[in-house]
Amino acid sequence: MTSDTLSGKKAKSPRNGGDQLLEVDDRLFLQSVARALYVLEAFGRDARPMSLSEIAASARITKSAAQRAAQTLLSLGYLERSSDGGLLPGRRLLDRAFDYLRSNPLIERATPILIELRKNSGERVDFSLFDDLSILYAIRLQSKRETFFATLAGRRIPTFCSSGGRSMLAHLDDAAIDDILRRSERKALTPKTITDLDKIWDKVREARREGYAYAVEESLLGEVVLSAAVLDDRRQPVAAVHIAGSLSEWTVDDFRKRFAPLAIEAARALSY
Question: What range defines the domain where residue 21 resides?
Answer without folding.
Answer: 1-91
